[in-house]
Amino acid sequence: MPGRHVNDHQMRLYMKHRLHEGAPRAAARAGFSVATAYRIEEDPRLPSQKKAPRERRRVDPLAEISDAEIVPLLKSAPGIRPVGVLEEMLRRHPYLSRGVRRTLERRIRVWRALHGEEREVMFRQVHEPGRLGLSDFTEMQSPGVTVAGIVLDHRLYHFRLACSGFEHAHVILGGESYVALAEGLQNALWALGGAPHEHQSDSLSAAFRNLDREALCAHYGMQPTRNNRGIAHENGAIESPHGHLKSVIRDALLLRGSVDFTDLAAYRCFIDEIVSRVNARNAKRIEAEHPFLQFFPFSLSPSQRRHSLVALARACIATSVER
């Protein structure tokens, strides 16, 4: 088309059709004139390869002070912000304009990438299907939920599969205990219909302390692990979903028009419904991961499952007390 520059995509399309067709027809398919096609025949480089390197269009305002003042300042105060450097340079050199801020920020970013302090290297995590499930507790004070007019002091036990994003949440009254863990974990696994091969928890939580020496994970054939102390991103597969889940709950409460529930059972049903909606959005991924889970070699009724796991948790507490 007249007035428009030929781009790389058009030229590649032209060269593709030119293998089997004449120049006029290939040019028509690519969307430019025959004259342009003949110019391309003489110079087959892509348009992006023909562009001359962009040169500086104005005098560098930081040329005289960059190596003499800015770099020594960055070396002596590694944590200083670019805006702090800018303010200092403006104080020392009143002729400078605040318009150099972007240039200064870009120059500092490049210098720190090449000569700054070494940064911790993080690799993208690739979660294998059926391998990892995570458990954690999260506080629920901000929504201000009440039961029969009384503020409910509670938290959520939150379980999640790292690969497919299957989630389960259980309302917990009181602190992080083995009984709360057992009740939440068993409900999550039985709702899932299987167990992952590995179960990870927060090493700072009292409920998970010494979990590898207890029979809770062994009951479902899971290998217990804990993230390293102070390394928050290792538990990111469930820490970040905490915030998403609580945001969804907050929105649902606003749509409901009230934060008061008749009883605890009604509130738990409310949470179950919200989590079910979240899982429905990930239904295809959950279904794809399901064959990789460990299936239970036994079958219990809901009441039997509840009593067996609570009894197991109490036995764990008794064992830890004896030790």
TrEMBL record:
GO terms for biological process: DNA integration. Transmembrane segments: none annotated. Residues 125-299 form the Integrase catalytic domain. One of its GO terms (molecular function) is nucleic acid binding. NCBIfam families: transpos_IS21. This is Integrase core domain-containing protein. It comes from Paraburkholderia tuberum.
